[in-house]
């Protein structure tokens, strides 16, 4: 025999379709936390303080080169004081030929020594003048440019330089000093190149202008002055 159990309550058959769950909408609260309020207040105060504080002006960089200077050496000044008058004297003789030559109206007394020098270096004597040798006149104009550059250098040094208490000289600073150095360097290169050119002209011409001299005359009257 099969015994059946009795249930305390009537059996209810489960529903086959699940019930729809209702979702309760939640609205965010408008209240903020105390820490958030304090951070916002600090940020606002900081921005207000920045507006009230005047801006610090950054100093503009100086356009002058105050840390650099140029002071010519005593040997440079001595060399210029000796060479410039001699080059001016030589340039005047060359560019004023034939009046500055022997027999000319301007020869004595300024250019009287060139009567002898014209026999040592024919470029300064009658052979070059009568043969229309243009090298002597060309180097005379180059001497004029060279001398002008040196005079500009000395003028800048004397008028724009600052006198030094511990030294009997002047110092050029900034752009003026840089420009003076460029001019002086350019003229010194020009002087060196002319000296080399004199030797090259004599070499390639078979020493046509100075080859007639003995060694001592050539050394004293031509090599040392050049």
Automatic annotation (TrEMBL):
The keyword Transmembrane helix applies. Keywords: Membrane, Transmembrane, Transmembrane helix. The keyword Protein transport does not apply. The chain crosses the membrane at residues 179-201. Residues 1-43, 49-68 are annotated as: Disordered. Residues 25-43 have a biased composition (Low complexity). This is C6 transcription factor.
């Amino acid at each position: 025999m099969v015994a059946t159990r009795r249930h305390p309550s009537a059996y209810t058959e489960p529903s086959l379709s699940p019930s729809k769950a209702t979702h309760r909408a939640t609205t965010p609260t408008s209240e903020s936390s105390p820490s958030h309020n304090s951070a916002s207040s600090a940020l606002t105060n900081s921005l207000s303080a920045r507006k009230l504080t005047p801006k610090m002006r950054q100093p503009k960089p100086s356009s002058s080169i105050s840390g650099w200077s140029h002071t010519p050496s005593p040997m440079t000044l001595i060399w210029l004081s000796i060479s410039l008058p001699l080059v001016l004297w030589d340039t005047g003789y060359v560019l004023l030929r034939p009046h500055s030559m022997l027999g000319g109206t301007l020869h004595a007394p300024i250019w009287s020594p060139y009567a002898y020098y014209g026999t040592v270096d024919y470029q300064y004597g009658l052979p070059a003048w009568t043969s229309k040798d243009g090298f002597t006149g060309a180097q005379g104009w180059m001497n004029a440019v060279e001398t002008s550059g040196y005079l500009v250098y000395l003028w800048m040094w004397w008028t724009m330089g600052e006198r030094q208490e511990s030294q009997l000289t002047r110092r050029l600073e900034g752009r003026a000093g840089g420009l003076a150095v460029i001019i002086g360097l350019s003229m010194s290169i020009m002087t060196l190149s002319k000296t080399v050119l004199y030797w090259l002209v004599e070499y390639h011409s078979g020493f046509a202008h100075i080859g007639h001299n003995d060694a001592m005359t050539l050394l004293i009257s031509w090599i040392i002055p050049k």
